[in-house]
Amino acid sequence: MSNSNFDPSACSGLSRRNFMRIAAATSALASIPVLTEAHMAFAQRPKFAASNRGIHIDANENPLGPSQAARDAIAAMIPKGGRYLMDAQFEINDTFAKIEGLDPNSVCAYAGSSEPLHYTVLAYTSKDKPLVVADPGYEAPMYAAKAVGAPVIKVPLKDPKGAASHDVKAMLAASATPGVIYICNPNNPTGTVTSPADIDYVVQNAPKGTIVLIDEAYIHLSDAPSSLHYVKEGKDVIVLRTFSKLYGMAGIRMGYAIGRPDLIDKLVPLGGQNSLAITALAAAKASLLDADLVPTRKKIIGDIRTENLAWLKSEGWEATPSQTNCFMLDVKRPGGEVLAAMAKKDIYIGRIWPAWPTHVRITVGTKDEMAAFRKAFKEVMSSSTAGLVPEPLHERIRETPFSYLS
Ligand code: PLP
User: What is the pLDDT of residues 339-379, one digit of tens each?
Assistant: First the structure.
């Protein structure tokens, strides 16, 4: 969006009249809390395990934090913190659009991708329009669907001992009237990639009006090609991007929804776009403009992942062929026992997905963190963990509907 045709009510040109009407109709939905990776990781931590204690490889965070350019940009922005700097809000959409060759009206910045993920499900699913997801997959969209009473159809990943990719044919066959088909590429928690041909199959064969929601939170860490071209082609596709993973800005909060302007317009009244901190905007812009950042970090994280997957294999353990900063590890016993035993050593891993009860998700930490993980894991696995159970959900998050997620 350029400054000259600025419309205060919208990210992509929604009229004020429509905005008021839609806002009134959807205000109840907008008040439903957005469940994020942070909530789910925090919820499983024992009460004593604040994020500053022990080793946290349980939330797919990036321990490298923001790049130097992003840190410098934040510091330079601090003195301007008394201003709203609306220009910066538009610039962040324009910057991304220019880099990716997109229409700026199809790019909408948010404080992370959790919000547009949640809003897309709220806007496009209903009692008659289910959400179709892969299992195991990222749980947040299921929570949003539950909020609008939309059925959730979980489709097992294809070839779970191999590529563990989305079973796109089964996902399409799962419902005649899907509201949203959610493809997380690469997938959280497995880190595995779904092929361009399979993604194309979903996009080309989804019923008219169904949104194919392609979550590219981890795309920069993988060799998978982006699906942004579907937006340029005008398909019923919304792509999500975040700065929380490769860019190391999970706590700074920045992300994007990218889709045809008429699709994005339906998310706008649900909330979100007023909340962008100018420090986050500055850090995001600096990160996007740093051409070395993606390859450098992809290599750092990829090398640590490869080293640890190789070590696990040499010790006889099987893990998913991840291309991201997390993988699922088959511990061949109830995953909760291992999670609890590791927590006793102040190393926090997780989560566990009900569909794969003997697997635990491991986030790729720093070299030192992973060395500590390997030592503790070897000790844990060479002793009995029978009867150990993870601590109850953290009291501050206990209200979230984890029973539903299982
Ligand atoms: N999508 C996926 C698949 C994720 O794993 C996460 C975070 O872990 C998000 C979206 C949301 O990230 P954020 O709200 O920090 O941008």
Answer: 999 999 999 998 899 999 999 999 999 999 999 999 999 99
Residue 358 lies in a domain: yes
Q: Dump pLDDT digits (tens) for 87-104.
A: 898 899 999 999 999 999
User: From the CB of 244, is ligand 1 less than 6 Å away?
Assistant: yes
Number of neighbouring beta carbons within 10 Å of residue 225: 13
Which residue range forms the structural domain that includes residue 364? 37-60+293-388
Ligand 1 pocket member 219 (CB < 6 A): no
> Do 252 and 107 reside in the same domain of the chain?
yes
As a whole number of angstroms, the distance between CA 131 and CA 151 comes to 6
* CA atoms within 13 A of residue 104's CA, in its CB half-sphere: 17
Residue 2 in domain: no
Residues whose CB falls within 8 Å of the CB of residue 319, separated by 6 or more in sequence, listed in order: 309, 312, 313, 327, 328, 329, 330, 362
Residue 42 sits in the same domain as residue 99: no
Ligand 1 binding pocket mutation candidate from 166, 238, 242, 361 (most atoms within 8 A of CB):
242
Which segments in the chain show pLDDT lower than 70?
A: 1-33, 46-52, 273-274, 392-406
43: tokens are: 């919820």
Do 346 and 230 fall into the same domain? no
- Measured in Å, residue 98 CA sits from the centre of ligand 1 at 24
Q: Whose CA is nearest to atom 8 of ligand 1?
A: 37
What global pTM score does this model have?
0.91
Overall number of domains in the chain: 2
Residue nearest to atom 2 of ligand 1 (CA): 217
Q: What is the CATH number of the domain that holds 342?
A: 3.90.1150.10
CA angle 361, 365, 370 (to 5 degrees): 90
C-alpha closest to that of 141 among 111, 171, 166, 117: 117
